[in-house]
Amino acid sequence: MTKLTAQELRDMLNIKIPERLAKISKEQATARTKIISAISDRPKTIPEISEEIKMPVEKVTWNIMTLYRYGVVEPVEKTDEGYYRYRVRK
Amino acid sequence: MSSLFSKIIERAEEVSEEKEFDAVVIGAGIAGMEASLDLADMGYSVLLIEKEPTIGGKMFLLSKVFPTLDCASCISTPKMAAVAHHPNITLWTYSEVLKIRRDSERGYVLRVMKKPRFVDESACTGCYTCEEVCPIDVPKELDFNLRARRAAYIPFDTAVPKIAVIDIDNCILCGKCERECPVNAINFLQKPKIYTVKAKSIIIATGYNLFQAEKKEQYGFGTIPNVVTSMQMERLLSPTRPFNHVLRPMDGKEPASIGYVLCTGSKDRTVGNPICSQVCCMYSIKQAQLILGALPLADVTIYYMDIRAYGKGFEEFYNQAQAMGVRFIHGRVAKVEKGEGGSVKVKYENIDEGGKLETAEHDLLVLSVGLLPNCEITKVFNGISLSLDEFGWLLSPDPTNPVKTNLEGVFAAGCSTGPKDIPDTVVQAASAAAECAAYLKKVNIIAEER
Ligand SMILES: Cc1cc2nc3c(=O)[nH]c(=O)nc-3n(C[C@H](O)[C@H](O)[C@H](O)COP(=O)(O)OP(=O)(O)OC[C@H]3O[C@@H](n4cnc5c(N)ncnc54)[C@H](O)[C@@H]3O)c2cc1C
Ligand code: SF4
Ligand code: SF4
User: Fold this and answer.
1) CATH number for the B3-116+191-207+374-449 domain, one of 3.65.10.10, 3.50.50.60, 3.20.20.370, 3.10.290.10?
2) pLDDT digits (tens, 9 = 90+) for B371-381
3) Distance B210 CA to ligand 1 centre (A)
4) Which atom, in ligand 1's list, is nearest to the CA of B52?
5) Average pLDDT over residues B189-196
6) Is B348 exposed, middle or buried (CB count within 10 Å of its CB: 0-12, 13-18, 19+)?
7) ipTM above 0.90?
8) Residue B317, Cβ neighbours under 10 Å: how many?
């Protein structure tokens, strides 16, 4: 297989990936997995997910909305308190 | 430490072939698009330069427009497409003007850098695969950071051109996008290209910057959750909104009570901007009406110093908002504090109650941020300078001709000369194009007589 240009650029400019980015990539993958598994049994609101996986509510909102825009989760119903419940899109 | 992008910029290649146009338009917001289309329709060749990966400026990010409540993207998207397809318009997005100098013979000579997208523009089909597989989330600037985009991304569903771009400073060069792209469009070896462009005339349409709400510390933007800017609210209300509904960014709750603080960063000497931003009263009244459309049971309160409803139909639009139940409180907000359960406490002086100090609580607080000059472009003029007014907006030396600048053959359009709404922006852009066309005709006649 021919070498990827991403690899060629790395080699050519001797690029070391900043720790910040490596950390973000790992954290994001973990956050998304946790959120998706939290709503895999039944739809939940953002505060319910936050409570269950012990993740700050702002962070859950950020991830849920990103997953929503990328078509991974969807809202199903609204509670009387004005929160939507989200589930994994089939 | 220098960024990867700056290392790549060092690898820029000069393109030897010179390009020539009748006019170069800098900035592809509604002003730049309108001016370019007008000139192109008159038969002039136009190079339209936009620094972002998509054209459209602020307008295509808006929800609807006051006072007609027409859908903003329904109006701007066809214009964006017309610009992209016009045979007399050459469009360079993701490009930067590095230098402009006067050339006695031929008008102006510009050095322009086309930044690499790391994507072959002619091959990319805008299929989103790269964005879907990319593992890096980055705050999405065009949604004012309300959600994430990826390091490989298409700026918007309605972007023009709809071509992916790689944010190399947030890329880990994992190669996933490159491996998955169905048409092999991704190429990390792309280099910036520097072009020499000759133009008989220039139109500056670089628009405005938004006031940075963090600067008004007492209003809590960035420190108190659920304090947002009016531009974030535009996104929340837009059909292409980042959330599934109008929701609080902290916890996704539907807000039952929403407050607006008008004149955030306008008519305010403490932040260095003593002038009125002209559009904040009306866009806030528009947003209040749209909120009541989306959340009919919500309470909306607008804290104002004075309401400037000066245009056609504006006063009626204001009255309509009052009739719909929007509360207007004549008062200056002094301080914003964090309340219980994500609410926001607003302490204000109620002028109509003899200056009484009162406190109110809202689920969401919107700061109606002002418009500030964006005249960075003046720095690239070499050996000549463009005049600015005392507030930093482009200045016309002739009060009877606001589209002329102090430089011959250089015209100004839209918010580059001062805050204005879309209809005024479009009128001024058409006027700049007409002045520019008259100038080109004169220049061409002189050239023929030689
Ligand atoms: C929250 C909010 C709501 C609003 N709602 C309304 C409304 O309902 N109705 C209404 O009439 N008006 C409204 N406005 C005002 C409206 O946004 C402006 O009238 C309009 O966008 C001005 O267009 P413009 O092309 O002059 O500037 P911009 O939209 O700012 O476009 C400027 C363009 O130039 C580009 N650019 C800047 N510098 C450079 C450079 N150096 N090189 C290349 N490109 C460059 C920018 O990237 C951008 O694409 C609102 C404004 C705000 C803040
Ligand atoms: S995967 Fe390839 S074709 Fe699809 S958007 Fe990305 S670069 Fe373009
Ligand atoms: S190479 Fe960069 S842009 Fe492409 S998938 Fe990996 S991190 Fe994303």
Assistant:
1) 3.50.50.60
2) 999 989 999 99
3) 9
4) 47
5) 97
6) buried
7) yes
8) 19
